[in-house]
Q: What sequence folds into this?
């Protein structure tokens, strides 16, 4: 059986050292090999290296146990962004139907972002001590809860359909099916809690 072709990083381009956000772009484009869209704010192109599951923070916390230690996770405001294998967003409608979440999908508040128009996410700041001078992040900006590790192939830690049935562990990619089922159930509970709170507020 012929395996999938290896991921080839996109060409890295020289960066303007005088421009604001230089350290941030250097981190993503040169250290990680992730394509970006100039800002402000700087954005990461979704699709070539990863897709994103965008869910409420309350629901995302429940899913963290389904991820490998090196699986990147970002937070912005009340939203959590779980990085998953490229192409996962295209599989999401069929996967949710197979998991029998299809009838509840319209109000589930689970958004899959992949390649194509609008396939970007705000770039969190560089992990570590404070922001680059002149590039301070405003309140509500994206931050890493679990940052990617420079020098490591991030794809190996991303949830994927090919890991279905496997346990999370060293050297294994997390199971996308288990992750999505866990996130969908958590999103449903968040929706029910919000509906109950709203009903009590008007009673």
A:
């Amino acid at each position: 059986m012929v395996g999938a072709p290896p991921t080839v990083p996109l060409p890295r381009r020289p960066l303007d050292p005088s421009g604001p956000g230089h350290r941030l772009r250097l981190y993503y484009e040169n250290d990680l090999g992730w394509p970006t869209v100039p800002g402000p704010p700087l954005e990461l192109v979704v699709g070539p290296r990863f897709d994103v599951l965008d869910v409420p923070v309350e629901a995302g916390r429940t899913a963290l146990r389904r991820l490998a230690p090196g699986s990147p996770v970002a937070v912005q405001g009340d939203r959590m962004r779980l990085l998953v294998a490229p192409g996962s967003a295209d599989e999401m409608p069929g996967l949710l139907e197979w998991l029998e979440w299809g009838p509840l999908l319209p109000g589930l508040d689970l958004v899959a972002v992949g390649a194509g128009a609008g396939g970007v996410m705000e770039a969190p700041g560089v992990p570590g001590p404070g922001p680059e001078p002149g590039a301070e992040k405003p309140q509500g900006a994206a931050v890493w809860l679990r940052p990617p590790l420079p020098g490591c192939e991030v794809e190996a830690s991303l949830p994927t359909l090919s890991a279905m049935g496997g346990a999370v562990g060293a050297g294994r990619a997390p199971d996308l099916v288990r992750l999505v089922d866990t996130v969908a159930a958590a999103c449903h509970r968040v929706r029910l809690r919000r509906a109950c709170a709203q009903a009590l507020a008007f009673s």
User: Anything to note?
Assistant: Helices lie at 22-32, 57-63, 88-98, 176-201. The CA atoms of residues 45 and 162 lie 23 Å apart. Strands lie at 36-37, 43-45, 51-56, 73-76, 79-84, 111-113, 120-122, 143-146. The chain has a mean pLDDT of 83.
